[in-house]
Amino acid sequence: MAIRMVALDLDGTLLDPKMNVTTATRQAIRKALEQGIEVMVCTGRVWTECCDVFQMVPEFRYAVICSGAQILNLQENRKIYADGFSCEQARSIYEILSRYDCIIDYGADGTFHNERAKLDTAESYVRNARIANWLRATHKVHDDLGQFVAEWDGKVEKIHAYFNNIAHRDTALDALRVLPYDLATSAEVDLEAMLPGIDKGTGLGRLAQHLGIAREEVLAVGDSGNDTKMLSWAGLSAAMGNASDEVKKTVDIVAPGNDEDGVTWLLEKVMRGEL
Q1: pTM assigned to the model
Q2: What 8-state DSSP symbol labels residue 178?
Q3: What is the largest CA-CA distance in the chain?
Q4: CA–CA distance from 167 to each of 125, 127, 163, 164, 190 (Å)?
Q5: Does residue 86 contact residue 155 with C-beta atoms inside 8 Å?
Q6: Packing angle of the helix pair 23-34, 262-271 (nearest 10 deg)
Q7: CA atoms of 177 and 198, how far apart (whole Å)
Q8: What's the rounded mean pLDDT across residues 15-42?
């Protein structure tokens, strides 16, 4: 069965190590869309973190963001699906995470909210000046994040955290397991919490059903732990060459890395009917 949809993770997949979409990949995406192949984004990022990517590739029509909590029609600027934690559920997660030395990303109203003091020292958690500056540019800061959490009474799309070492992250993961929520990691020292039934796989499935595309007609592409449910849901799965060994073991295809235009390589194969 021919591939009709290609779902792309962003960080480590569509984006190169400098967080850009290469010219070759942009051209391949546009060509695939012109041929009727629905190339779309499936990411853990919240809305404000995605805007720069959608500006690089304005032809994207659909996106699953917030690890499946929202499905967007980008061309019509509307939500196809939206869900998330209640404010009470989110506060229970925040209360546990606040015991640990970490940057808490509290995803509400389309952006991540952070404590100013933690975001000011983001380099000590993410260990990458480019990413630290990007976080400061795309997130909303508060002098007292706890006060915002206490006062926010709307849905919370997701909660994410960066830690300064793996041991602290793993300890926090163990503490969070007393709550009935799904936990995943996408980098060496991070974690994310989601409602059960909301993940990249279910988000991709909802969009495919909305568009009348069968599971067997979907290729999913990713590189890290929070991509596994998307990769296992799709009829065909691919990991980037820079993906973790654990992810590579679960997929049908290993593509070149995100520093070698691996997405271009896959899209060209799809367009030639080789996948």
Answers
A1: 0.93
A2: T
A3: 54
A4: 13, 16, 9, 9, 11
A5: yes
A6: 20
A7: 17
A8: 97
